[in-house]
């Protein structure tokens, strides 16, 4: 914060340059109700208008103070500078609404325009195989980066540190392996879906079994992908999750049904750019709003002392999902399964105009994914540092917080929470000033006490509030326009994922089930209409099942846990198809069933990390399939169904 | 509806580094550099 001479100079200079700013600046000090962030804004504003550098020095704000909703001391600056200073009553202001609405209208209109020529099944489901690599690359990234990535991953970094990034260490390896194998094989097979290839290699029942597994697993995933942005709307409007889920679902369905994959891919491209802009802006403002006495180095020291800067954990503990070993091997298997067997991703690179274009799309994703994920987690870690000095609510889920208000036991927790916060803040300030081991140890102990009290509150609430942390921060502390941009980024992420998943579910339903088993001979127009109807069906399904999203804890972890239950078996059968010519159809079919049985048993009866389900499922499928294939006579494969 | 098998689909060289194996190696080398940097980051701050 500013020294007295600096304040005087700033006031005088800013008054000369802009009377309103100068007056507001003076008023802040006159009232002595200034937050550090507001002071920083004012100082920079004055400097910008005068061209003079103003002196500053660390100091503490003492009075006056007002009680915020957590009940702890908080500071209330003048209205002119509230944007960066404290919680707001209305998170979305007119400029935010303008940015958000303009972004959504642009995305939907752009998607409709891009998809206006999707008048055949080939164009509707595969974009006529005309996509360039950069469109596929960003579409692949956008499909994977859902709203959960913004909401839950940042919350995960706040609560658990950055070790989640290791989950993606296996992804680049998987991209290389898939570029070498699956991409040329799928392209040359000329298939619409990955599972169509299984019938060419094995038989119709194996194709049907794996298609069904995909429909179940992705059907569960799309519900969560829809529920996450509904939380955003719920926080902004204060409406129940159920209402916002329906609104979000209808919005996305309208655009997805009309556009087809051509619209989905090109809007993904735009959405990824919006997401990146939102992410960079959020990180910038998070750092900018730290108290002036807290430099970047100081912020890193505090985050590190609290165990939040841990992107690499060397451990061989198989029960811990986030360490280098599990990330490289478990993560590689999960990525192989997701990008190699999940139609929502396979369909992205089947739209490529050549093998080379599809490979480049995957490899770009492999190179960019880990740094992008690091950036998202780092933002979450910096939000944690922000809340070391700014009082966080006892619970980030406002609805749960309000429900507990008035209870005696909760009031007692709140009192201890405020005391623990003050203790931690003081310890953090000392740590930033001294940066020695005793102050680091004192901060760590204060942080543990604070966490213990917060844990009592979340236990009392009966649900984790990780998914609300980033939203609480964005909607209460970021300036007008930026809130709208980040909301647009969250919506863009959600729309890209939901549209791609619904599109892939519809593709598998029509190509692998309806056309293969129900209506085998019909016109192209008939299957095009069936694809649109199937898209509608899966949209309604997602809306209905998303109602149960609040019971899943951290959404990002829930998505990966569900995926891991099924991906191992799917990966195993594709490995057999690609690399084991001796594997028979009967072996593959029995192997998949055995793989699912073992993975479900492991999930039910053991505590191994979910990333290893992929390895386990894949190994069981291969082992059983090869054993059955060796025991039984080779079969004659039926002619491939088209 | 389906165009069926497309065995004649050409396998073009990549626009960078001339051959696909070199591009694959570059992606894996980039991953190794990232892990090393993250390790240093962890050791520096997470004490």
Terminal-residue CA separation of chain A: 71 Å
* Percentage of residues in helical conformation of chain A: over 70%
Low-confidence stretches of chain B: none
User: Biggest interface, and residues per chain?
Assistant: A-B, 48 and 31 residues
How many β-strand runs of chain B? 0
User: How helical, in percent, are the residues of chain B?
Assistant: 55-70%
Q: What's the arrangement of secondary structure elements?
A:
The complex is a heterodimer of chains A (642) and B (47).
Chain A lengths: L3 H14 L1 H13 L4 H15 L15 E2 L5 E2 L19 H21 L6 H6 L6 H12 L2 H14 L9 H11 L1 H8 L4 H8 L2 H34 L3 H48 L7 H10 L18 H18 L1 H8 L4 H35 L8 H7 L3 H27 L2 H25 L7 H9 L4 H37 L5 H22 L9 H25 L5 H21 L5 H21 L11
Helix pairs in contact in A: 1-2, 1-3, 2-3, 4-12, 4-21, 6-12, 6-15, 6-16, 6-21, 7-11, 7-16, 7-21, 8-14, 8-16, 10-11, 11-12, 11-21, 11-22, 11-23, 11-24, 12-16, 12-21, 12-22, 13-16, 13-18, 14-15, 14-23, 14-25, 15-21, 18-19, 21-22, 23-24, 23-25, 24-25
Chain B lengths: L19 H26 L2
What does this structure look like?
The complex is a heterodimer of chains A (642) and B (47). With 642 residues, chain A is an all-alpha fold. Helix content of chain A is 73%, strand content 1%. Chain A has 25 helices and 2 strands. Chain A has a two-stranded antiparallel sheet. In chain A, helix 1 (4-17) packs antiparallel against helix 2 (19-31) and helix 6 (133-144) crosses helix 21. Chain B has 47 residues and is mainly α. Chain B has a domain at 17-47. The mean pLDDT of chain B is 84. Chain A binds chain B through residues 121-122, 161, 165, 169, 172-173, 175-176, 179-180, 184, 187-192, 200, 300-301, 303-305, 307-313, 324, 354-356, 359-360, 363, 366-367, 370-371, 374, 440, 515, 524, 527, 642, and chain B through 1-7, 9-15, 20, 23-24, 27-28, 30-31, 34-35, 38-39, 41-42, 44-47.
List keywords for this structure.
heterodimer, A: 2 strands, 73% helix, globular, B: 47 residues, 1 helix
